[in-house]
Design a protein that fits this description.
By secondary structure, the protein is of the alpha/beta class. The protein folds into 2 domains: 245 residues, Spore Coat Polysaccharide Biosynthesis Protein SpsA, Chain A, CATH 3.90.550.10; 74 residues. The protein has 10 helices and 9 strands. Strand 4, helix 2 and strand 5 form a beta-alpha-beta unit. Helix 5 packs parallel to helix 8 and helix 8 packs across helix 9. It is elongated and about 90 Å long.
């Protein structure tokens, strides 16, 4: 037996709760913006699926009755600003204290009937993240073709750059361990937060899993906040930024090889002419070739230095991660 201080979603702290080691504290965390049509249903479904969990709704600068309806359904409501899903997730991870976190959107598109399966898989297999992979059965109203295609492309990009076997890196339905949440150094502000979550797990080497879950359509009077092209571009830029940050030698080394190759191509004709005549026919081209070669060498040096810095950062993140105990199993 061990003692816990668990924060109640109805207000305040409840110190001295005694739980067995097989009864971890679970928090359902729901980021939302203007979801008055669906948030009550999401809270009720979460309470039905995980009756012992605390439900926290983080209202991100809504202008409708989202907070009122979430509170009426029994959730603890926290107001956040400025707008942006990444901003909200950062706040949730910082403020909510639990052993297991279930992240779900407030638009009622994810199936909370499998919430217990996500949590059980996380605990039984001692994982740090379980992703609810969206299965829409081909209905265009539930999962638009542009979103589906973009998700496949971005998933392939992450798998190619960082490895792993994830099949839905942009899902907003996930279960996390405490040690994942408390060691996640997020920098994202918007919908690119899911990509950053995935990359964080891969770079630290966390054990992860996936569960297929039904993905439904929004209600007719509910409006999506996702912009297909704008947010898709931001997600792709975030993936590239993370690749440069986590694999600097590969990136800058490739830049150095490219610059060096162009330099050699420009220099070969000049060198041939010089060997034949003893003259340099195009001095500006020779200067450009020299500059490109020096730039390529500089890129290699930068990549080497940054690679050492990155390795040190990874070691520190890994050590911080290992200092937090992993999730206990629900099975005695």
């Amino acid at each position: 037996m061990r003692e816990w201080a668990v924060r109640s979603w109805t207000g305040g702290w409840r110190p001295g709760w005694t739980m067995s080691r097989h009864e971890p504290a679970i928090a359902v965390i729901v980021p939302c913006h203007n979801e008055e049509q669906t948030i009550g249903r999401v809270v009720e479904n979460a309470q039905a699926a995980l009756p012992n969990a605390g439900v926290y709704v983080f209202d991100n600068a809504s202008t409708d009755r989202t907070a009122e309806r979430a509170r009426a359904a029994g959730a603890r409501v926290v107001s956040t600003s400025p707008k942006g899903k990444g901003v909200v997730v950062n706040r949730m991870f910082a403020d909510v204290d639990a052993d297991v976190y279930l992240l779900v959107d407030g638009d009622s598109t994810y199936d909370l009937g499998v919430a217990s399966k996500l949590v059980r898989k996380l605990l039984d297999e001692r994982l740090d993240m379980v992703v609810g992979c969206r299965v829409d059965e081909g209905h265009e109203t539930a999962y638009r073709y542009g979103h589906r295609f973009g998700n496949r492309m971005l998933t392939a990009a992450i798998r190619g750059m960082f490895g792993g076997t994830f099949t839905d890196v942009l899902s907003g339905y996930r279960a996390f361990s405490r040690r994942y949440v408390k060691t996640f150094p997020s920098h994202s502000k918007g919908f690119e937060i899911e990509a950053e979550m995935t990359v964080h797990a891969l770079t630290i080497g966390m054990p992860c899993g996936e569960i297929d879950t039904r993905y439904g359509a929004r209600p007719a009077d509910s409006v999506s906040k996702l912009s297909t092209y704008t947010d898709g571009t931001r997600i792709l830029i975030t993936i590239m930024r993370l690749y440069v940050s986590e694999h600097p030698f590969s990136f800058y080394g490739a830049v150095g090889v490219l610059l060096g190759g162009v330099s050699v191509l420009l220099a070969l004709p000049l060198l041939t002419y010089y060997l034949e005549t003893g003259l340099v026919p195009r001095l500006p081209t020779a200067v450009l070739s020299l500059g490109l070669m020096l730039s390529g060498q500089l890129a290699w040096v930068c990549g080497t230095i940054l690679d050492g810095v990155t390795r040190g950062r990874k070691e520190l993140r890994r050590m911080a991660y290992l200092r937090i105990p992993g999730p206990d199993s629900l099975v005695p």
